[in-house]
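Interim report, section 4.2 (structural modelling).
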Amino acid sequence: MLTDSATLAIVDDHPIVLEGLQRLLSNVKGITISGCFTTGTAFMSFLKENKVDVLLLDITLPDVNGIDLCKEVKSLSPDTHVLALSNHAERSMILQMIQHGATGYLLKNISSEELIACIREALSGMITFSKGAREIMARPSVTELKGIPQLTRREKEILHLISDGKTTPDIAAQLNLSPLTVETHRKNLIQKFQVKNMAALIKIAAQQGLI
Amino acid sequence: MLTDSATLAIVDDHPIVLEGLQRLLSNVKGITISGCFTTGTAFMSFLKENKVDVLLLDITLPDVNGIDLCKEVKSLSPDTHVLALSNHAERSMILQMIQHGATGYLLKNISSEELIACIREALSGMITFSKGAREIMARPSVTELKGIPQLTRREKEILHLISDGKTTPDIAAQLNLSPLTVETHRKNLIQKFQVKNMAALIKIAAQQGLI
DNA sequence: TTATTTCTACCTGTTTTCAGGTATTTTTGC
DNA sequence: GCAAAAATACCTGAAAACAGGTAGAAATAA
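Predicted structure of the assembly:
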């Protein structure tokens, strides 16, 4: 039994989703659900004692964020295949998860057949994506093409203040800087994001969860 | 049977959620699931032929937005109790749904017991919220205190263009308007949102999902 | 058919932002 | 300790945004 049935665990803070996944997967040959968890910490302590072949992982959890959890899982148990299961339909998010060791990325609007197929693919050691996720990967949007620019501490700080409606003189006064310095940071931000003005930048930053 | 068992329909584009809800509610006394739909239009055509006592409605659907659908449902069938079921944990969203006729608002991290209790409450004609939703309602955040201002079609259009980095002259040219007119809309937007400038406005708009 | 909202357009003047640089001093990482 | 990155600061001029109005036409709702 151990040889031909894979163990699967689910981490999701939504009982409804947990129920749905259990129902969908309970009668699938070759897959045994060994645990369902609503928090990352609960799963991690389970993982210390049990072997898990596949983990279906919701990225947005109450206690830890999915990317960090994925990293932890992979360092504790490198053979566990982590399948991110999420509503986040952003390219950057998918890339980040893969970068941190996830074996695949499934959008929550996945169909049951697709879900099972993806789990099988993951078990055989392949990277796998749901249909929706593949589509997103296929068409890098203009804003996401460059990825999220790396911002310095000061730049983030100033971006926040700008998004709160503060003007350059305001910010300079608040941070005890020359207005000219603030202007320089502003310019660098616009350059880094490759946008025309702050309005466009703040939209992207907000959508990317930066502010 | 018609007198003591309430009919319930579910609209959600996530098969997993649909499965979970069906499973959770299938054996509940007094509730009969009469239909599950993944699109708003599919449900609307069902509603024209069938009586639905309670609708569990996911706000984010592929074809129509939940607020509009809720309005449609209530105007076609005022006796249907609409329970919004969503991941949107924003006060403004909850208020908007209630304003448009919803009987309650449930966050998707709701427990099964809570879900059933809420459906029962809705059936008895009461407004109902999940625990999480009640918490959000309890603490109005600073930005959300004023609610989302009602924007006109033109204002939304111009707000979008601004958030794409377009300047007033750009927008005027694109919409065949006087730049002065665009400026007026701009001013009205800033007044409606009670902010100092567009940077602050766009942050709020993005966070509220307006852009 | 009113009344109200929305859309349109105008005016004046000030403030802020943006584009195009250059350049020194701190930090930080190796 | 040295190189690279980050933070600081400066300059000029043009373009855009904002503040504070007013006001007529058009569309919508009551």
